Amino acid sequence: MKIKTIFLLANGSSILLMTTFLIISYFYMILSVSMIGWLSLLTVLSAFISFLVYYLLTSPVERSIKRLAEEAHHISENDFGTKIPEEGPVEIRSLTHQFNGMSTRLSQSFQALQKAEQSRRELVANISHDLRTPMASIRAFIQAIQDGVVEDPKSKAQYMRTISLEVERLDQMIQQLFELSVYDSGTMQLHKEWTALDQWLLEVMEHKRFILEEQHREVHIDFPERVKEVYMDGEKMKRVLVNLLDNALRHSEARTDIRIRIRQQDRFIFIEVEDQGEGISQEHLPHIFDRTYRVEASRNQKYAGTGLGLAIARHIVEAHEGKIFAASELGTGSTFTIQLPREGKGVTSG
Ligand SMILES: Nc1ncnc2c1ncn2[C@@H]1O[C@H](COP(=O)(O)OP(=O)(O)OP(=O)(O)O)[C@@H](O)[C@H]1O
Ligand SMILES: [Mg+2]
To answer: How far apart are CA 296 and CA 283, in angstroms?
Structure first.
């Protein structure tokens, strides 16, 4: 039954009661005939007026409810965004207000879901493509060895080295994907402790010693004495710095220098990695932390990465309530900065 019909029936029933009273008065002679006449006239008149008033008062309520129903139907078809005017009695206005708020929040969640789904699809497509490339080259090299295309030991060794590099690349990709899935599932656990930065830095440099020597690179480290310890997950933060160093090495010429600068400002530690490489254009700069995003030039490099390194780095830094950002000039070089709170949340200085 329509809400308007219910209100009109309620009104009708009170008029019916009045009419019954008048009929009873007539039969039992409780009131005089002229009085009953007047009262009947008044009843008819008041019935007409009250029906009109009820009709006018219930119309906005009915309209609002109708709009709410229509909008709910739109939402069920993933069509968000229409705001319902807040009118009518207080309760209806409050209901409409809540409904509009709910619709906005639903729309935001839906957009976030769509974006996540889109990026998941892109990730799968890009990764499948990236996995196929090393696989194809491993297959081709093995085939060549099996078919006896390469006979001399020197070329064979060279082929084996390429296969081994490709396997390493596959292994790294799978590890990065696994890491991302752990972060996505929200199960990343940080083992934070007070970490001596000098020792931590030494371990990272040790990790890169071989390639630095191979490329005749100098890494300049500016490390003020007073910056000593940071409350962080040293192992995970090593992954971040190694990632930044890998990028700096990959995108700058051998023999050019790399600089690591550590400084403290207020309650933050800033770790900067600066290279004198190819740089990143302003057009690409805002996207480099997105998953699988690579500047077109790096996509074509022989041992290009997967474009996951910076996305992983951002996850780790943000889990430390920190930030990571980049500044770069095309042809001049790039500087990546990690900003970390020196003391994690709820930790007192040690
Ligand atoms: N120091 C840098 N100089 C120039 N370009 C850079 C630098 N660091 C990152 N980039 C650009 O940003 C992109 C994304 O970097 P990211 O580390 O996420 O991926 P990747 O290095 O390509 O692959 P991965 O780290 O997964 O092996 C790179 O492909 C590259 O185009
Ligand atoms: Mg990288």
So the answer is: 12
